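Thread: phosphoenolpyruvate complex, take 2
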Amino acid sequence: MNKARKLIIAGNWKMNKTVAEALDLVKGIKRELANIKEVDIVVCPPFTALSDVSKAVLNTNIRLGAQDMSEHNFGPHTGEIAAGMLKEFSVRYVILGHSERRQYQKETDDLIAKKALAALAASLKPIVCVGEMLADREAGRTELVLRTQLRGSLAGLSAEQMEETIVAYEPVWAIGTGKNATPQQAQEAHAFVREQLAAMFDGTVARRVRIRYGGSVKPSNARELMSQPEVDGALVGGASLEDRGFSDIVKNSI
Ligand code: PEP
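Output below.
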């Protein structure tokens, strides 16, 4: 597939997989995807498996991501994990503002922007998630929601920092529901996100930033979604928990 930007496909394992299960999964992914160079491949295990998975992907084409991090660098923040701690395991990417954290941990755009700045200061690449709820879409508020989340969650980033950042468009109604956005809906939303980035930064930055789609991506819909000109990859939840499913998504996207 001929793309303007290199595709990036990441698996978000969420709160799944013991260390042994994680190692099993990553072994399968390594076997299936060893020769793929056309796509940046990222796995995001739970914190407890980062250390072992980090060793398992050493010297391979698979990169490591975390699912969240603190906006603080150290100190009295019980239960939190700092960017510097993730770096100890060669983590390169960190998912921030996933809709589950926005919804259940009440994360705000302001907090997500602080986390993004802390990640960038530690040379981690943030994957900042935005996306509308079903009620927003039905009420014609998709663009308003996306504009507000982008302006809030990326507040304070310089143009250089924005180029290191990835945006994930994840319509909340498509996450874990089996009901993906149509390729046309994804293309439209991504084009809108890129327009907003051009307004917030500039056209060059907007053209360079990778915007990826998340929401019920599976082997059967990956090719059509990834072939949209503004779609630069995928954030995959459910289908990333099984080596064949995740690997077929990557292979079908090339
Ligand atoms: C996600 O949670 O980021 C996600 C896209 O999940 P799923 O692929 O299961 O819809």
